[in-house]
């Protein structure tokens, strides 16, 4: 082979090799001994963005490295090259556009025999992806290593492949002890097979389970953990592994328990507090419903404890309370509850008490001598009791009822118990509600006075009318006094209501008078209203302000029972009113337990015989006898007699023969609205012409 042909062959081979170098996907760079670029392949141009013609002669180190390129790597490369050796290093390089790229550079001297003399040739492999993966792996493994949560990785057969250091610190097992084992090595046995089968079902169906579980440490100690298990599917079909991570939540649980204790138990005595008592009460009520047993709710208050506390000081007082709390705890059965609900107040929930002596026994336990500092005291308690379901109230009200009963127990004296009476309370509740309604009725002006005429038997003259109140109820229609007066009586509304009646009746009388109708008006006055301070003062002021109004045409009707209850006081007020010129009538006479002898002592003008006697007087001899004697006595003592409830003419006739002065009743007219009275009077006078003269006379 001659020179030319061998040169030709070499050129061909060089071109061929260059082509091969161009074809590979890795970058190839050939440098001189100073690492200046002599040649790069197309893959190099693609990877770095630099073209051969613009970088020929430039140093590769200057071209490709940048601020984040590791200096140690750079130095190592420089050293290797200087000594004419190759290197194989991962290096962070920079593209022409400034973006970064991880390259594995495998660099060797071109002529291996004489190191570095022929320059270098480097193959550059893009390892960016691998580097990224490594980075992530590094992070992941640092998470695994440093996590505070224990992590177990187990294979498809649930055999432990790896655990992290937190696993060891939580469970006490080393990595070596764990690997190859089943995680059930931690099982505490607290969870049954059902629990685990549902856990595995969830893993199979959702690749995931999370929950609280009790496990056991190597030292045998049980602890609660919060566990998450994930099933990780691998690319190969059917291949998977499990990652379980858990944290020890003992501290968390302890903290929650502490909070729970603070929220539900009394600090001083350790007894349940009011809040827990309320929860227990609901539970006990359910229990009693199910078992059809009674539940006693008892409110116990120590007698005079505040004084003791003040005397001995709070420290000793607290000690006494603790002792009493312990005694109470011992005095009840295990399924009963005693709670401290206030300073010296306790609530006891006692199931199925079949013997009343139980309550006194509890009080006896409290009463035992107690040493407080240097002295010994006998502290007693008072107990109010209500029994569910006899008292069918809700929990809150049961406690309130027991509390109410406790006050009654205190009234009996110390060391007593008292039962709440639910029937009393129901009435009370209704009454309270009615009073609220009645107050609104006054404010909304829903009351109205009706008037019932009163007639003089002698000449059928209309002598006056009685004001009778009605309630125009928005829903229930017109209500008679019997339907609401009992609620007003004895309440704080009584006086206010009475004033309303009095004012309206007097104003009505003045209206009639201005219209030429002179009518006496009878007004019913309740006991409390009459005896309220200032009653007669109000009347005198009213009369002074209305000089036109004739006081003799005003009659105050007072129940016989009122007059008798506090005769001294009643007589006094009655006399004051009579001094003003006002007439007094004794209403419902005969129904009280008065005897006729009271006649003389009571300063009244008119006696109204109660309608019950009038109703029966035609058939019942004894009723008739009463009517007769009342009329007789009234005449003797010079009082006017009015018979109520005259329903028929026959009654009127008989009363006339007996000498009765006046009558009132459905037989004459029913009570009617004020506006109807004028017309009624005209018609009555037309039918009884005799009355005209008498009426005019009476009105003068
Ligand atoms: P009272 O003062 O004895 O009034 C007479 C009651 O008998 C009235 O009932 C009247 O409607 C009824 N009455 C009248 N004639 C007859 C009759 O022939 N047959 C029957 N069966 N009943 C007759 P009322 O209006 O229901 O009042 C009942 C009671 O309420 C009154 O008895 C009175 O004590 C009280 N009352 C009424 N209005 C007032 C008031 O404004 N203030 C006070 N404090 N009490 C009032
Ligand atoms: Mg009356
Ligand atoms: Mg009456």
Brief account:
The chain is α+β, with helices and mostly antiparallel strands and 700 residues long. The protein has four domains: 15-133, 2-Layer Sandwich (Beta-Lactamase); 147-253, Beta-Lactamase (2-Layer Sandwich), CATH 3.30.450.20; 270-425, Reverse transcriptase/Diguanylate cyclase domain (Alpha-Beta Plaits, 2-Layer Sandwich), CATH 3.30.70.270; 448-699, TIM Barrel, CATH 3.20.20.450.
List keywords for this structure.
700 residues, alpha+beta, Beta-Lactamase, binds ligand C2E, binds magnesium ion
Explain this structure:
Helix 23 (598-601) links the parallel strand 23 and strand 24. The protein has an 8-stranded mixed barrel, surrounded by 5 helices. By secondary structure, the protein is an alpha+beta fold. The model is unreliable at 691-700 (pLDDT under 50). It has 4 domains: 15-133, Beta-Lactamase, CATH 3.30.450; 147-253, 2-Layer Sandwich (Beta-Lactamase); 270-425, Reverse transcriptase/Diguanylate cyclase domain (Alpha-Beta Plaits, 2-Layer Sandwich), CATH 3.30.70; 448-699, EAL domain (TIM Barrel, Alpha-Beta Barrel), CATH 3.20.20. It contains 28 helices and 27 strands. It binds ligand C2E and magnesium ion (2 copies). Ligand C2E binds at residues 452, 467-469, 480-482, 485, 501, 524-526, 557, 587-588, 611, 644-647, 664-666, 671.
